[in-house]
Every structure is written in structure tokens, then in C-alpha cells.
Amino acid sequence: MIQGASAFAYTGGRALERSRPCVVMIHGAQHDHSVWILQSRYLAHHGFSVLAVDLPGHGQSKGQALATVEAMADWVLELISAANVGNAMLVGHSMGALIALEAAARGATRITRLALIGLAYPMKVSDVLLDAARNDEPRAIDLINIWSHSTKDGGFSHKPSNPGPGFNINWGNRRLMERQAKGVLLTDFNACNAYDRGAWAAQAVHCPTLVLLGERDLMTPAKSGTAFAATIERHHVRVLAGGGHALMAENPDAVLDELYAFLGAS
């Protein structure tokens, strides 16, 4: 129980072992732990303990979706304490990157490494997308999927969006988003739009930080993420060629390789 409601975290197919370094993975808006399925399972079977969380009101975690990045960062830190894992490494995607950044700043002595994927600051949401999230959620989900996936190799009709027969990254992400409760998307977007503590958080973070960006990301452009990363003391930026915003799905092996090398570095 976290803040009076049950909380869910996927451990990658292995029981949590507190003797191992712990990686806490934080999803983005309208998502849940399953966006990390490849990376979480591999890390859990190769030397790490994993907590891929469902934020409140998302996936299998109960309660209402939290209204601010700051509140979500506090929730993550409470979950780490409740899991009794001691120090942790944080990995976040998109909104989850903002949450990880804020949590690392607030819990500086407890966070040993920080990986921020699909990061931009400020993370402003367009008026068109906010209006759709408020008044026409299916349209908002359509727009997100169009803008989140790279048009490399011709778009959704070619790899990597269709890596094999019967598999489609775009439609898989659409179904995941449709499973979340109505209103969560607008709450998440408002939280991203309102977050204004990024400059303070960047100055307060002193642990090694990886910023992983997509070359063709339309949601959080690599140029913006690179510029903001420069304000973090011990940062390292990697831009994945051809990648869009949905890096864990479109570039799963590259994301895994980057995370495994970074999280396991001495």
C-alpha cells in the first residue's frame, strides 16, 4: 500500500532480491509497466532487481491518477522505501523522465543513477492535443500514436512498426492506451504541461545521468532534450538514429543495450 492505495510493480519475472542493485522504471502518460517488458525482464535476469511501476490510477495500481509531477515523484520515493531496497537507480520515459528527474532531485542521497528517455523540458503539450484529451480521447490517442512513432522506412507499414506478421507497434500501443481509465490522459498531460521545476531539479541532481533520445522524435525533440541535458552535472547524451518517441518499442534492443551498459557501469 502506498498513500492508502495498493500499488503494483512488475519485477521482471524474478522475485525481488534486495542484495542486487535495484532499477525502478517509470512509464509515461497513459501507459503502464508493460512498456518496459523487454528491458525489465532482461535486467531482472542479468544482475539487477527491477521494479517497473504502474503509477497510481494506471495499469494495476489503484487510486486516482496524481495531478502533478511532484506528487508522482513523492509516490515513487515512497514505493522505494516500502520495497526496502535501499538505494535505487531510476529510469523514466517521457512524463516518467520528468518524474524520475524530480524524484532524483528530492531523494538525492538514495538515487545512484538516472536514465531519462524521451526527455524534454519544458514538456509542454500542444493545445490541439490537450483539447483532444479533454473532449475526444480516441482522437487524442490517434494523434499520440501518429506523433510518437518514427516515419523511418515508410512509417507504420514497414519495419520497425510491423516487425513481423501479426505484430504492429502502433496498434499495440493504441490498445495499451485504451485500457487506461477515462480521464487519466488529461491528468497526465496537465501534469507535464504544468511542471516548472526542471531547472531546479537538474541543478540538484549529481548522480551519473544518461539522456536517451530519438533522432526523429516529434513529441520531445532531440534538440530540446540535448540542450536541457547540458544543465545536468554528470550527463551523457545518446541519440538513437531513426528513433521516434516510443523508443522502447521501436528501438528495443538499442534501448536495452544503452541501459545495461549505463546501469552496470562501475
Give a written overview of the molecule:
The chain is an alpha/beta fold. The protein has a domain at 8-123 and 195-263: Alpha/Beta hydrolase fold, catalytic domain (Rossmann fold). The chain has helices spanning 37-44, 69-83, 95-106, 127-135, 137-148, 169-178, 184-194, 198-204, 222-229, 247-250, 252-263; strands spanning 8-10, 22-26, 49-54, 88-93, 111-117, 209-214, 235-240. A seven-stranded mixed β-sheet has the order 1-3-2-4-5-6-7, with helices on both faces. Strand 6, helix 9 and strand 7 (235-240) form a beta-alpha-beta unit. Helix 2 (69-83) crosses helix 3 (95-106), helix 4 packs antiparallel against helix 5 and helix 5 (137-148) packs antiparallel against helix 6 (169-178). The longest helix has 15 residues, at 69-83. It is globular and about 45 Å long. Residues 154-158 have low confidence and may be disordered.
Secondary-structure map with pairings?
Blueprint: E1 8-10, E2 22-26, H1 37-44, E3 49-54, H2 69-83, E4 88-93, H3 95-106, E5 111-117, H4 127-135, H5 137-148, H6 169-178, H7 184-194, H8 198-204, E6 209-214, H9 222-229, E7 235-240, H10 247-250, H11 252-263
Parallel strand pairs: 2-3, 2-4, 4-5, 5-6, 6-7
Antiparallel strand pairs: 1-3
